[in-house]
Amino acid sequence: DIQMTQSPSSLSASVGDRVTITCRASQGITNSLAWYQHKTGKAPKLLLYAASRLESGVPSRFSGSGSGTDYTLTISSLQPEDFATYFCQQYYSTPPYTFGQGTKLEI
Amino acid sequence: EMQLSESGGGLVQPGGSLRLSCVASGFAFSRYALSWVRQAPGKGLEWVSAISGSADLTYYRDSIKGRFTIARDNSKNTLYLEMGSLRVEDTAVYYCAKIRASVAVVAFHDLWGQGTLVAVSS
């Protein structure tokens, strides 16, 4: 199975900050990577897919980049509603799909 | 509005069984593959199983093969997860998630439910 290593596991930031979260795959996944936002008690929400494609309705302050095994999620200017846990997921080839361990973004 | 709503969770003893359901609305249910994804307390998300839109292809993670069965009823817009021989380590919130494709291969999840809690304990 492809392992996803996400870092950091937690991050403290302030409104207006720029933050970056990274995911590293154990093998190349040719941009088959999605990012999700998850707030406690709520349904996870798709932010980006294909490493850099913004899901409809997601604010443009969210962006993604990367290639091969290394990918990043960037939030350009944190808003109060962005404080949540973020997960990456690889969907290269057949299941099992695997997720990163998550990054808890706190004020 | 597209929605997924899970139900069927609860407290069960080790070795017991449970059936989860996920009712969908707001999209052409049979056109899309679906997954079950779980999150154990204090842990990250873990993909469990997936099924194609036509239900002819299913996938399972190794740790639940032979114990869990994924199924769907396209006439009822409902996804199921039959869980048997439950273990303490199966304790988690279980989410159903829509895949943006008819087959569960090389695809991501674009809609999630809010989850249902399964607790396995004696």
What is the average of the pLDDT values of chain B? 95
**Amino-to-carboxy terminus distance of chain A:** 34 Å
Instruction: Give the radius of gyration of chain A.
Output: 13 Å
For the secondary structure, the number of strands of chain B is 11
Largest interface: A-B, 26 and 27 residues
Instruction: Measure the end-to-end span of chain B.
Output: 40 Å
Instruction: Quote the average pLDDT of chain A.
Output: 95
What does this molecule look like?
The complex is a heterodimer of chains A (107) and B (122). By secondary structure, chain A is mostly beta strands. Chain A has strands spanning 4-7, 10-12, 19-25, 33-38, 45-49, 53-54, 62-67, 70-75, 85-90, 98-99, 103-106. The model of chain A has no long low-confidence stretch (mean pLDDT 95). In chain A, the strands form 2 sheets. In chain A, strands 2, 4, 5, 6, 9, 10 and 11 form a 7-stranded mixed β-sheet that branches. With 122 residues, chain B is mainly β. Chain B has no helices and 11 strands. In chain B, strands 2, 4, 5, 6, 9, 10 and 11 form a 7-stranded mixed β-sheet that branches. A 4-stranded antiparallel β-sheet of chain B has the order 1-3-8-7, with no helix packed on it. Chain B is globular. The termini of chain B are far apart. Chains A and B meet through strand 4, strand 5 and strand 10 of A and strand 5 and strand 10 of B.
Give the tags.
heterodimer; A: 107 residues; mainly beta; seven-stranded mixed sheet; four-stranded antiparallel sheet; 0% helix; globular; B: 122 residues
Produce the secondary structure layout.
The complex is a heterodimer of chains A (107) and B (122).
Chain A: E1 4-7, E2 10-12, E3 19-25, E4 33-38, E5 45-49, E6 53-54, E7 62-67, E8 70-75, E9 85-90, E10 98-99, E11 103-106
Chain B: E1 3-7, E2 10-12, E3 18-25, E4 34-39, E5 45-51, E6 58-60, E7 68-73, E8 78-83, E9 92-99, E10 109-112, E11 116-120
Parallel strand pairs in B: 2-11
Antiparallel strand pairs in B: 1-3, 3-8, 4-5, 4-9, 5-6, 7-8, 9-10, 9-11
